[in-house]
Amino acid sequence: MTTASQNAAPEQGSGSGVASAQPRLSADRVKDILIVDDHPLMCDALALTLKISFGRKTVRTARSLAAAVDQIRTHGAPDAVILDLNLPDARGAEGIVTLRRQLPDVPITMISADLENAMISAAMAAGAQGYIAKSLGREALVDSLRRMWEGERVTPEGYEPEAGGSEDDARAELARRFATLTPQQMKILRLICQGKANKEISYELSIAEATVKTHITAIMSKINARRRTQAVLLANSARLFDPG
């Protein structure tokens, strides 16, 4: 497997329209790290690398997005998060959108083997501090994380944003709208994107069909969509549930 290096993404003032993160903790002050990845070996290897490279740190792990959310509620916010793109209960930008709602000021790093430009753009617009390849060697990984924890926006070498200016701003605004959805509304939107009818959603979530309709009305209002098809298009545009 080849090793990819990382580049600093443009700062907000240089023309990038994605949501720009403010300078955060220095890398030395990041003491509590949460790794969200469903692969035990990946979690163990990454945790060991962090402990060795950054000294004695508290490294927590979660195997799903739901487990990460529960852990944050129970044990408090970490200083930094490393988030896998594909989890058992979340694919695409959904993980970042969900965690950003809980952790507005915590640097979240997306890690994945998927280096498609559109997916990277969606993750950065959703609020990621950076996006790194799973194929990175130890030194490059540590360097990328250190830079992110010091406030830099880091993306893979060769990454070229799909759009600039107003389109990037629109994508970031769309991610902010999705972040206003409750967990139940996010589940319903995911099922809508899978083509499920209200009756099917009602059965799958064990809630009344009238409740489903109420949630859908709220979803449409929050994301500024008039029809289900438009809601699906917006979710696909944000790469919310499927990395493609």
TrEMBL record:
GO MF terms held by the record: DNA binding
Domain Response regulatory: 32-149
Segments of this protein annotated with the region Disordered: 1-23
Annotated TM spans: none
Keyword terms of this UniProt record: DNA-binding, Phosphoprotein
Residue ranges annotated for the HTH luxR-type domain, each copy included: 174-239
Coiled-coil residue spans: none
Gene Ontology process terms (BP): phosphorelay signal transduction system; regulation of DNA-templated transcription
Modification 4-aspartylphosphate, positions: D84
Protein name: DNA-binding response regulator
